[in-house]
Amino acid sequence: MKYVLLLLCSLFLFGTASAADEAKTQYATFCVACHGDAGKGDGVAGAALDPKPSDLSTTKMTDDEMAKIIKEGGTAVGRSAMMSPWGAVMDEAQLKAMVAYIRTLAAPK
Ligand code: HEC
What we know:
By secondary structure, this protein is an all-alpha fold. It is built from three helices and no strands. It has helices at 2-35, 63-72, 92-106. 18% of the residues are buried. Heme C binds at residues 30-31, 33-35, 45-46, 49, 51, 53-54, 56, 59-61, 66, 69-70, 74, 79-80, 82-83, 86, 98.
């Protein structure tokens, strides 16, 4: 019985860790080119854009606003169309995890 509990606990821990890991991987896959490793808006593909990709480490957006621009893209909130919608590759849980990941970029180092 003890072992079953232990197993359940580790599954739970693994489950939460992997949502965060997945957000990190998705960020590295979809967002780094424009927003850069640390979210500063200094990715290689972002250099040529006007307006520049936002510095995600200093964003003033609320969680809901962030989820909306990520899901529906810049044009949905009156911003640049270069910020494309990612709703097709992220479900609600992944969007939430992405917003949480972006918050970690703002954490003081
Ligand atoms: C092709 C370049 C590009 C890619 C790739 C990209 N973005 Fe953006 N993003 C932008 C630009 C440009 C803006 C600024 C829009 C504006 O100010 O009009 C922006 C703005 C944002 C904002 C608004 C923040 C604020 O305070 O203004 C968030 C959040 C964001 N991006 C998240 C993401 C996430 C998460 C991904 C990956 C899933 C991503 N972006 C991929 C170009 C990009």
